[in-house]
Amino acid sequence: MISKIRVLVGKPGLDGHDRGAKVVAAALRDAGMEVIYTGLHQTCESIVEAAVQEDVHVIGLSILSGAHMTIFPRILKLLRASKAKDIMVIGGGIIPADDMKKLQRIGVHKLFGPGTPTSEIVDWIKDNAVKPKRPTTRKKKSVRKKVKKQVRKKIKKKSKG
C-alpha cells in the first residue's frame, strides 16, 4: 500500500459545474490523500501534464457535459504517449450505463454515477491505488517536453485551419 495517495481531480472541457468535483476533492483530502485540483475548463493535455509532473497515482475526472466518450479516451491516449499509463483513471458525472461499460473496456478503471457517497469513492481509491512505475525525474522532463510539443502542434493546426 502507498503511504500517501496522490489524486489529481480535473474538470476537462467546457463544463462549468464543479461543486461535485470540489466535494469529492475535499472528501479525498479529509481521508488523508494529497489532492491536486486543476480547476475548471482544463484541456486533456494540461490534465495529463499536471498528473505526470505531480507524480499522481490517480486521475479523477468530473464530466457533466456529455463529452465523456471523447475526453476519457483522449486522456488514456495521452497517458500512454507520456509513458504514464500506470496512472489510474476514474471518473464521475452524468454517464449512461452503456457508455460506462465501453469506457471501462478501453481502460477507465472506475466510474461513479450521480449520488455516489464520497465514502465509496474514498474506499475504492484506497483499495485500488498502486504506486506508479514511471521513469526517473530526468526522463519526466522529456515527457513534459513531448506533451508540450504535441499541444503546440495542435494549436498551430487550429490557427492555420
Name the features.
single chain, alpha/beta, Rossmann fold, 5 strands
Total strand segments: 5
Poorly predicted segments: 136-140
Give the helix level as a range of percent. 40-55%
Average pLDDT confidence is: 89
- How far is the N terminus from the C terminus? 49 Å
User: Any idea what the radius of gyration is?
Assistant: 15 Å
Q: Enter the CATH topology name.
A: Rossmann fold
Q: Could you name the CATH class?
A: Alpha Beta
Alpha-beta content class: alpha/beta
Strand order of the largest sheet: 2-1-3-4-5
Verbal overview:
It is a single chain. The protein is of the alpha/beta class and 161 residues long. It has a single domain (6-160), classed as Cobalamin-binding domain (Rossmann fold). Helix content is 51%, strand content 15%. The chain contains six helices and five strands. It has a five-stranded parallel sheet with strand order 2-1-3-4-5, with helices on both faces. Helix 3 links the parallel strand 3 (58-63) and strand 4. Helix 1 crosses helix 5 (118-128), helix 2 (44-54) crosses helix 3 and helix 2 runs antiparallel to helix 6. The chain is globular. The model is unreliable at 136-140 (pLDDT under 50).
Write the layout of secondary structure elements.
Layout: E1 6-10, H1 19-30, E2 34-37, H2 44-54, E3 58-63, H3 68-81, E4 88-93, H4 97-106, E5 110-112, H5 118-128, H6 137-160
Parallel strand pairs: 1-2, 1-3, 3-4, 4-5
Entry summary:
The protein is an alpha/beta fold. Helix content is 51%, strand content 15%. It has a single domain (6-160), classed as 3-Layer(aba) Sandwich (Rossmann fold).
